[in-house]
Design brief:
One of its GO terms (molecular function) is ADP binding. The protein has 774 residues and is mainly α. The protein has 37 helices and seven strands. The strands form two sheets. Strands 2-3-4-1-5 form a five-stranded parallel sheet, with helices on both faces. α7 runs parallel beside α9. The two termini are 18 Å apart.
Length: 774
């Protein structure tokens, strides 16, 4: 990418339907964001707070060097998990020992970033507390929140989102733009055209359409639900139904705000238009959190319906705009708008099947994660990772159900333990620890489920940097396994003891524990457990100086995973085997293994393993006499480590070799060139850095993530002209901009680069030119 061109960054979702109107609101919210670091959009459900926030964020993205990031809190029910959800959205790991809030503050404090916190109303206190902490510690952070009520903290700017603009009864005209001036009418027309392609506003129907929009108080959700009815009704019939229903609802609920009456009535009306089977399924679908797939509907909600009947009813609910269909990575998923989910939940709670549906939901997702674990060492692992990613809200809801009493806790322990491979690959150590600790505290019948839960909790605690907790869980699990007399349970706790002693640097004891557990798992032909012990034994043997045993273990992992098409552990083994090959001077083999490991890590988005592979490839670049490439790759590996956690979690002595190789590269090209190349790698997008590491892209093709030293294209042009000695007035004339704009660009450049003079900008430009020629 040419110098100065910045790629946008963030995680804003793509809009699936057109965005209608709201120009005044967009301008006002952007103005508020320019003067206040916290802006909260409030309003009734269905008024369009989320769509407005995401559109403002998208249109403001150029103002935030480190991107715009959306955190959806609507499906989050645990107040204690707000920080974890923000960490996950920013693609950060929880850290080994630092408090999660500290990890967030450390990451955000130097960055210029917009954080969108969406659907905060049920988590007001924890969101408000987090906002105060972040805003005080992170001077360049802005927060845009959506909530049905303000967060109630100092410095908060509140924008109440109004309904869409509507025509007055005496202003229904097609002349001079006519109805096209009104957002509600435009929204109805656009959605009506989606339902009936040849629909148009005419002199004959304009009065009716205007009346429909007024009856719906300009609420976007209500308008969209009404427009889709054109598939079965005329606009006159829709207005007639609206009129009758509105009168009935007003009479029945005079105390409710008018907009809530209208929205409630509109959903009630949509419910009435559904068949009995559709109504029943709508209610049952509210047992899901977030999205869900067809197999989950069939397994939990079908009741006496056949598979074909379920498909027909689901399709009908999609046609009626009750269900939304999404397609992600080839998988079709469905979801309910939150307002429609709340409505359906009320209906479900009126029935006798609510409690049984919650248990069926838990049972189905328990079965799902157990299947994922049993099928983990296979070519289907990539699909399982994607499915578990998508199902996190449902899995968390199922685990939450297991906290309701001791009779449910064992099922929760089975679920949480089965998620261990996923949590570890995703770097979600703290989340796993929290669930397991809560489930064990609830109680349950002592058995193998609790032993495995203690095993996972011990290993996660050690990886997280808490050896005391790791030791405690090893002791508890070992005692319980001995009481049960279960050889697999005893082998698991031997493996846990091996990890604990490895973390505490007792390599000899760790080897003994891993050899013991491996013998049992090998006899049981449990490939997943075998790999756990083999990997631990490989690390422990290497730390003890027994490299031949370490190599044997790594090779066995590669054979076990390679023949079964597995990705995560094969990626880890390729990375660490590549390190060993390089130590022996087998540079070609080392590069092939590290490249293979990186490709595998990319397939499952395992960024800890990817960071390790990129690190090894940077060492090989020094061996091959390309120190500038090495510096760029070291920067890319460091960027990943900052986001998802250091690969030294898996390979503890990584930093020692890194320090030696870095010094060698610096001696070869000098500190200035090294730092410039390192910074280029540090700011690179992960996808581009990985492609560069495996020779799919050249260094000049790497797109950088906007960072504190990244200039926009215009700023780079201004900096070049400053280096040529031009004044602000001369720059303005050269670029055909105002002198005041030119001055603003220079001030932004000085601020971003941390400089105080134009001479420093000129020197920086000259340094850039020299480094590009190196």
């Amino acid at each position: 990418m040419p110098p100065g061109i910045k790629a946008t960054t963030g995680n804003l979702p793509h809009e699936l339907t057109s965005f209608v109107g709201r120009r005044r609101e967009i301008g006002e919210v952007r103005r508020l964001l320019s003067v206040s670091r916290l802006v909260t959009l409030t309003g009734v459900g269905g008024v369009g707070k989320t769509r407005l926030a995401l559109r403002v964020a998208a249109e403001s993205s150029r103002a935030f060097d480190d991107g715009v990031w959306s955190v959806g809190l609507g499906e989050l029910n645990d107040p204690g998990a707000v920080v974890d959800e923000v960490l996950s959205a920013l693609r950060l790991s929880e850290g080994r020992s630092a408090a999660p809030e500290s990890v967030l503050v450390e990451y955000l404090s130097p960055r210029k970033l917009l954080l969108v916190l969406d659907n905060c109303e049920h988590l007001i206190e924890p969101v408000a507390d987090l906002a105060v902490t972040l805003l005080r510690a992170c001077p360049e952070l802005r927060i845009l929140a959506t909530s049905r009520e303000p967060l109630g903290i100092g410095g908060e700017a509140i924008h109440r989102v109004p309904p869409l603009t509507m025509p007055d009864p005496d202003q229904v005209s097609l002349a001079g733009g006519g109805l096209g001036r009104y957002e509600a009418v435009n929204l109805f027309a656009e959605r009506a055209t989606m339902a009936v392609p040849d629909f148009d506003i005419t002199e004959n129907n304009k009065d009716v359409i205007a009346a429909i929009c007024r009856r719906l108080d300009g609420l976007p959700l209500a308008i969209e639900l009404a427009a889709v009815r054109l598939r079965a009704m005329s606009v006159e019939q829709i207005l007639q139904r609206l009129t009758d229903r509105y009168a009935l609802l007003t009479t029945g609920s005079r105390g409710a705000p008018a907009r809530q009456q209208t929205l409630q009535w509109c959903i009630d009306w949509s419910h009435e238009l559904c068949s009995q089977a559709e109504r029943e399924l709508w209610a049952r679908l509210t047992v899901f959190s977030g999205g869900f797939e067809l197999d989950a509907i069939e397994g939990i909600c079908a009741d006496a319906m056949t598979s074909s009947q379920v498909v027909d009813v689901v399709a009908s609910l999609i046609d009626k705009s009750i269900l939304i269909r999404d397609e992600v990575a080839g998988a079709v998923r469905y979801r309910l708008l939150e307002t429609l989910r709340d409505y359906g939940m009320q209906r479900l709670q009126e029935t006798s099947e609510f409690a049984s549906l919650l248990r069926r939901h838990r049972d189905w997702y328990e079965h799902l994660v157990l299947r994922a674990e049993s099928d983990w060492i296979s070519s289907r692992q990539v699909a399982w990772v994607a499915r578990l990613d998508a199902e996190q809200p449902n899995i968390r809801a199922a685990l939450q159900f297991c906290l309701t009493g001791p009779s449910e806790a064992n099922a929760g322990g089975r679920m949480a333990s089965a998620l261990y491979p996923y949590w570890r690959a995703r770097g979600r150590l703290r989340e796993g620890m929290r669930w397991l600790a809560q489930l064990l505290a609830v109680g349950g019948e002592p058995g193998p489920e609790q032993v495995k839960a203690l095993y996972v909790l011990s290993v996660l605690s050690g990886l997280y940097g808490d050896p005391e907790a790791s030791a405690l869980y090893v002791e508890r699990g070992g005692d319980l396994a001995a009481q049960l007399g279960d050889r697999t349970a005893e082998a698991l706790m031997a493996d846990a003891a091996g990890h604990h002693t490895l973390f505490t640097r007792d390599a000899g004891a760790a080897c003994e524990h891993f050899e013991s557990s491996l013998a049992v798992f090998r006899a049981d032909r449990n490939h997943l457990y075998m790999i756990w012990s083999l990997f631990g034994l490989a690390l422990a043997s290497g730390a003890a100086g027994n490299w031949s045993r370490s190599d044997e273990c790594q090779q066995e992992i590669l054979e076990l995973t390679g023949t079964r098409g597995e990705y995560v552990y094969r990626g880890w083994a390729s990375w660490t085997t590549g390190m060993r090959a390089r130590q022996r001077g087998e540079y070609s083999r080392a590069k092939a293994l590290a490249t293979q490991g990186l490709q595998l890590a990319r397939s499952v988005d395992d960024r800890i393993s990817a960071a390790g592979c990129i690190e090894v490839l940077s060492w090989i670049a020094v061996d091959e006499g390309v120190p500038r490439r090495a510096a760029e790759l070291m920067g890319a590996a460091e960027a990943l480590a900052q986001r998802v956690g250091s690969p030294s979690i898996i390979y503890p002595n990584l930093h020692l070799e890194h320090a030696r190789i870095e010094q060698e590269a610096r001696r070869a090209i000098g500190d200035r060139v090294f730092e410039t190349a390192f910074r280029h790698g540090l700011e690179a997008r992960f996808e581009d850095a990985a492609a560069y590491a495996v020779d799919e892209k050249s260094g000049s093709d790497i797109s950088v993530e906007p960072g504190p030293t990244s200039l926009t294209r215009r700023e780079q042009q201004v900096a070049e002209l400053v280096a040529e000695g031009l004044t602000n007035r001369a720059i303005a004339g050269k670029l055909v901009i105002s002198q005041r704009t030119a001055q603003g660009h220079v001030e932004h450049i000085l601020s971003k680069l941390g400089f105080t003079s134009r001479a420093q900008i000129a020197a920086w430009i000259i340094e850039q030119r020299h480094s590009e020629q190196a």
